[in-house]
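In the current project phase, work has continued on tokenised descriptions of protein folds. One protein thus recorded appears below exactly as we store it.

——
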Amino acid sequence: MSTLESVIWHILGYAAMPVIILSGFVAVAAVSIFLLSLGKDKKINE
């Protein structure tokens, strides 16, 4: 493997970790908001 390939794979490897963590956080937040909105009272002024 050339030096350029090695650098590219290292960048991809280090970039993947925060992307996986952040996408997991966003997915959990979206599911939580959806589940909470199911139980919310839809009537505003009653």
Remarks:
- The chain is about 80% helix and 0% strand.
- The radius of gyration is 20 Å.
